[in-house]
């Protein structure tokens, strides 16, 4: 049976993509949209993403290993990974709104500091 989605909600955990030590090499949010998620938007299917429990890492002042097999990350590395996760989520809402022909609207509640997660409240077809 053919699946005909009207909206895709991605539950997060995309941040492993931002590590240059993964199988795919260095990736950006734009790479992810161009290579993977773009086909949904091009087909008129909006996709929004949330933050998964691995998409945000605290800055601790101590180098951290975030994923098995990766080297330790500095605070600067972690801030960049967090920014890339934020960028991916934000772009998913922007692209979904454009692909939905006005059926998806959202409000962004920006982080209060220099770096932090924005939160989003979305409405699709009245829900």
Description:
- The protein is an alpha+beta fold and 127 residues long.
- The protein has two helices and four strands; from the N terminus they run βαβαββ.
- The chain has helices at residues 29-42, 75-99, and strands at 8-10, 47-49, 104-109, 119-124.
- The chain has a two-stranded parallel sheet with strand order 1-2.
- Helix 1 (29-42) runs parallel beside helix 2.
- The longest helix is centred in the C-terminal third of the chain and has 25 residues, at 75-99.
- It starts with 7 loop residues before the first strand and ends with a strand.
- The mean pLDDT is 84.
Q: Which structural class do you get from the secondary structure elements?
A: alpha+beta
The level of helicity is 25-40%
What is the 3D form? globular
In this structure, how is the largest beta sheet organized?
2 strands, parallel
Largest sheet, order of strands side by side?
1-2
In whole angstroms, how far apart are the ends?
A: 26 Å
Show unreliable segments: none
Q: How do the helices and strands follow one another from N- to C-terminus?
A: EHEHEE
Q: What portion of residues belong to β-strands? A: 5-15%
Radius of gyration over all CA atoms, rounded: 16 Å
Mean pLDDT: 84
Separate helix tally: 2
How many β-strand runs?
4
């Amino acid at each position: 049976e053919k699946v005909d989605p009207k909206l895709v909600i991605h539950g997060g955990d995309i941040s492993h993509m931002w590590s240059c030590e993964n199988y795919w090499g260095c990736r950006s949010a734009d790479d992810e949209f161009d290579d993977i998620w773009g086909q949904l938007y091009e087909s008129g299917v909006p996709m929004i993403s949330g933050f998964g429990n691995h998409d945000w890492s605290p800055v601790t002042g101590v180098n951290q290993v975030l994923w098995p097999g990766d080297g330790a990350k500095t605070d600067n590395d972690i801030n960049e990974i967090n920014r890339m996760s934020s960028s991916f989520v934000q772009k998913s809402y922007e692209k979904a709104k454009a692909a939905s022909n006005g059926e998806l609207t959202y409000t962004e509640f920006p982080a209060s500091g220099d770096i932090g997660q924005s939160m989003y409240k979305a409405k699709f077809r009245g829900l």
